[in-house]
Write a structure and sequence with these properties.
The protein is an alpha/beta fold. It has helices at residues 4-10, 12-33, 38-46, 52-58, 68-80, 84-110, 112-124, 126-129, 138-157, 162-176, 186-200, 205-216, 222-228, 241-245, 252-274, 283-287, 293-303, 305-317, 328-342, 346-349, 351-388, 401-410, 413-416, 425-431, 437-443, 454-460, and strands at residues 396-398, 419-423, 451-453, 463-467, 475-476, 479-480, 487-495, 498-505. The protein folds into two domains: 4-374, no CATH class; 389-505, no CATH class. It has 26 helices and eight strands. Strand 5 (475-476) and strand 6 form a beta hairpin.
């Protein structure tokens, strides 16, 4: 009788395709309900800049990224429009490509069950799941990461290497032109190739020249990178111990699944032995070779790139956030998959149990994301409804820049003209070193949003509404904190998570 493991192995492409179809359907549903958030709205608007020269000039002080992802997004917007689905479609396709090449990498060394489990683990990662249908460049970096690893894997194994070497070069170039923090993707491959050179006692010059040529393509981006440093002094997420500890999200799914699988798979083994069907199903391990040492080194290096990124942020860029290093999740998945080959323990050999557990957790996680998207959509609609109900045409000052841009985008035209965000850099940085105001001020030059001077607004508007919770520099309890400015609350309208204060400047 054919075992479940053999059925999956014999129909691996059918199973993998089914997972992609279900996953894509769930992400489309999520994208339908989930409103654009602050960063995505930058992608939406910047991608609509009509010329490459204009795009090049805009990037840097407004958004510290190379131009590739905006160009790709503009192409998709040209064909599919400017809605949430069309704008997020490049990210979704990029993530599906990342899953495909991760499957190829793992199936080549570990077999179908482990490969499919690894794909599900990447979908389950808390850091990755937030970016799957996020109209930002990070899924594209994930795709470039897995493509480069697979091309390097094939090039190191085969003598016919022209296409794999070209793929390695192209994927690394695309990564560099997607995000400046993609440069650490070179490190794991370089580390693995150094190990391989010692192992085979010779230098594989074609691979080294490919890596060197790909790295040299960053030279045209140097002027743009220098302009991006204008944001470093007040970047919203700086290198500190708290932000560094948040990188644990990159590995949370893998640790959780292993711990659960450890307990349940031992129980499954026990039941099989009690029922006289305890013959170990290790055919997959036996038929597959052990992963080469250079690939293990590369996977470890990829897992540790947040440490390298932190050093770069401390000494050079002053910008550090978990999403920049989401590729480390791929390294953690590969290490977990390879460990099943290297450590032949019964609980690790129980691949089917691990696959089933991961699939259940992944479905639950995707369902939770959809519910979260629906809740965010309801809350946003409630906020807009509360603002629209105000009985006069007074301006509404939204304290949070994140809330302002999102509310302004979805508000009806009759309300858009009343929404303001106020900026006073001197006052702002007395209360906070980190601020997205620089980027928002730059966006106001491209998009008809009302981002105005704090002091100028107070000189021309004596009565207005304040929307939102406490702000580190504008609202403290019920008083605006500003030199020589006092306000009196006239009325308050409360709503879910937000509220309106009608104030008068004395």
């Amino acid at each position: 009788m054919i075992s479940l493991e053999e059925r999956i192995e014999n129909n691996k492409w059918l199973v993998f395709t089914l997972i992609l179809v279900v996953f894509t359907a769930l992400r489309i549903v999520d994208s339908y309900f989930r409103p654009f958030w602050f960063d995505e709205l930058f992608t939406l608007h910047i991608a609509q800049i009509p010329t490459l020269a204009g795009l090049w000039e805009t990037l840097g002080p407004m958004d510290p990224s190379p131009p590739l992802y905006y160009i790709i997004t503009r192409i998709f917007q040209f064909f599919f429009g400017y809605g949430e689905f069309a704008t997020r479609l490049p990210a979704l396709i990029s993530f599906l490509i990342a899953l495909f090449f991760l499957f190829l990498i793992l199936d080549r060394r570990c077999g179908a069950i482990t490969a499919i489990t690894g794909v599900l683990l990447l979908c389950l990662s808390p850091a990755a799941e937030k970016l799957i249908t996020n109209a930002r460049t990070y899924p594209l970096i994930l795709a470039c990461c897995t493509i480069s690893l697979w091309c390097w894997q094939v090039a190191a194994d085969n003598t016919r290497r022209t296409l794999p070497l070209f793929g390695l070069f192209l994927s690394l170039c695309l990564a560099l032109y997607s995000h400046f923090y993609a440069f650490p993707l070179f490190v794991p491959i370089v580390a693995g190739e150094i190990y391989r050179s010692f192992k085979i006692r010779r230098i594989d010059w074609p691979i080294w020249l490919t890596l060197l040529l790909a790295a040299s393509t960053i030279i045209p981006l140097v002027p743009l990178a220098e302009r991006c440093t204008s944001l470093s002094a007040h970047f919203w997420s700086k290198p500190n111990s708290l932000n560094f500890l948040k990188c644990s999200q990159l590995y949370a799914a893998q640790i959780k699944v292993v711990l659960i699988a450890f307990v349940i798979s031992i129980f499954v083994k026990y039941l099989r032995k009690k029922s006289n069907h305890g013959q170990s199903t290790q055919s997959e391990i036996i038929t597959k070779q052990l992963p080469p040492g250079h690939e293990v080194v590369a996977a470890i290096g990829l897992t540790l790139i947040p440490f390298l990124g932190y050093i770069i942020a401390v000494y050079f860029t002053n910008a550090f956030t978990t999403r920049y290093f989401v590729s480390a999740t791929v390294g953690a998945v590969i290490i977990l998959a390879y460990s099943r080959q290297l450590i032949k323990r019964p609980w690790i050999a129980e691949g089917t149990a691990l696959l089933v557990i991961t699939a259940i957790l992944c479905l639950a996680s995707q369902a939770n994301l959809i519910l979260s998207a629906m809740e965010k959509d309801r809350n946003l609609r409630s906020i807009i409804k509360i603002m629209s109900k105000s009985r006069d045409e007074l301006p509404i000052v939204i304290l949070s820049p994140l809330s302002y841009l999102q509310t302004q985008h979805y508000a009806p035209e009759s309300l858009k003209n009343r929404l303001f965000y106020l900026i006073d850099y001197d006052l702002k940085f007395q209360y906070s070193e980190n601020s997205p105001d620089v980027s928002l001020d730059g966006l106001a030059e491209l998009v008809p949003i009302k981002v105005e001077s704090f002091k100028l607004f107070l000189n021309t508007h004596k009565t207005f509404y304040i929307a939102g919770g406490n702000s580190p520099y504008m609202l403290n309890s019920k008083t605006i904190v500003a030199p020589s400015t006092e306000t009196t609350i006239i009325d308050t309208e409360k709503g879910p998570e937000k509220y309106l204060h009608k104030v008068s400047v004395n």
